[in-house]
């Protein structure tokens, strides 16, 4: 196919792609052997063929087969896909181009043919025969403030005065030895937005792809409202499979996944409210639980759990999460304490669809907060179990963000959620909206709500607008967000919104061949074929049969090596992408005699450069963690020598400075600890926020009227310049 370039477009029906005298018939087939059979027949007859399909055991991975190329021939493959960019806790949208796929747990012989099990040779970084070039074009209804990345980028270039379109590119010679991550920051991040898109002219006007579609995005700036202190049953599922012994990233100074997860779990235990219930499961090929059933959160149960957490190891083999989940769901509910499940895992589990379906079946009795650890965590599993249960999903590739995201999710679980969510539309006469997205019942602070709708009726021929209103209640208070939008949308040849809507519908119904009912399978097939969005039951195939001479001779595969990393886990996936709001054009160029630094050399020099600037930060963080370790389950601190060492004083002076000597000494110790934590932990706000909240609640229960006097005395004793606006009391 030299210079022919087979281009796969996500079309809703068979298409003849014309290139010079080449005709390629691209069809979407039922995946049940038909596509594979046609591909294999074409290859055996000497034709050139292309097959694209979802991996049978992980729907977040796609495999592409291209066969019967002439020696020295070149082929260009363009893959286009759409996705919703996930929202970070600081309001950024995150785009990731994954460089590696960790080999994931293979439980049975049935998954032996998965592309996840492909083995490729490992070479030193300087010996890789390719580099990665990437240009990202970002557009938004709101201004783009900045773009950050874990890789070296060119300076941002704005493509207009209003800063609604920008472009960045990777530095030249990028080796693609790590995920490429972009964090995109927008102005007016909490402003709602609506995008309308016209349908395909050759489709039925009332069909999914033929009618106009709308995408509504709400990200309300909700106030923090804490629920009852003693509310909730918190169950933590910790992956202790062998792969958790790997590092979070490829750098040699990166923390082990199991160690980062243990530190996070310890902080979560310290941050739980008194009176709630909790339990901890460690799982792998088997599972163990700390307590026969969830226990009340007390000083004794917290201390026992923390001792056991410190001894957790990545020693349980594979990743079997379904069995412990079934055990949790089988347990009795605790009246007044809704179940909240926190899942930490780094890989793929056997039967992803069955796990998601089981979580869905039990979604009325719990919420699931999921965390994908490391660069190869299964997005299908992590997003799926959170989506069907009304929880949140987070992906963690560095220690500095694991605790932040886990504690933010715990805050979501502790805060009151938004309820009674409803959406109303106001259109010109003759036009209405039909919801395509599933009904949303709850929403937390920091969450974004994306809704898809199909517009039915007659679109106005003159300039006109519509309005959509989101109404909800928060602790009995009615709130709303409104946004007005134009009904004269620009033409979009990619039909991005339509395909995002189709993808949302397919994800909701498609639970694999064993878990999807016949009726929903038929719906998935129809939506997939009409929209061109792949599902578990469809695949794309292209066959070129016009060659004058069939390709003959034995096939000689070309093995593409992967870079040597400290985890020795990655599989390089060369492809090009085009996302919803981000177009990435990638090319792999041959490199010969290029002098470049190896991973180890880079890591060593990087460590030398960063050690000096990080020493102070690490030292300060360790002191804060030590202070946190001394806090009691009820939120208080004891007046003892360990506390005085952290505060830089002595026990006698601390006791003498107490203005309320007739009170419990823990009251004075807690005021000192909270003020010191608040003043010295500003750079680690994520660490102390929930702990401060718990401590202040304890103080109000034990010394409410004397708190102002104690605070002033503590400020003077510790010589802190905390302003009244900074105080947490």
TrEMBL record:
The record places domain VIT at: 1-83
What InterPro entries does UniProt report for this protein, alphabetically?
Answer: VIT (IPR013694), VWF_A (IPR002035), vWFA_dom_sf (IPR036465)
SMART domains, alphabetized: VIT (SM00609), VWA (SM00327)
Which superkingdom? Eukaryota
**Matches recorded under SUPFAM superfamilies:** vWA-like
**Every VWFA domain range:** 233-414
Q: Which PROSITE patterns match?
A: VIT (PS51468), VWFA (PS50234)
Its annotated function is as follows: May play a role in tumorigenesis as a tumor suppressor. Altered expression of this protein and disruption of the molecular pathway it is involved in may contribute directly to or modify tumorigenesis.
The identity of this protein, by name, is von Willebrand factor A domain-containing protein 5A
Species name for this entry? Cricetulus griseus (Chinese hamster)
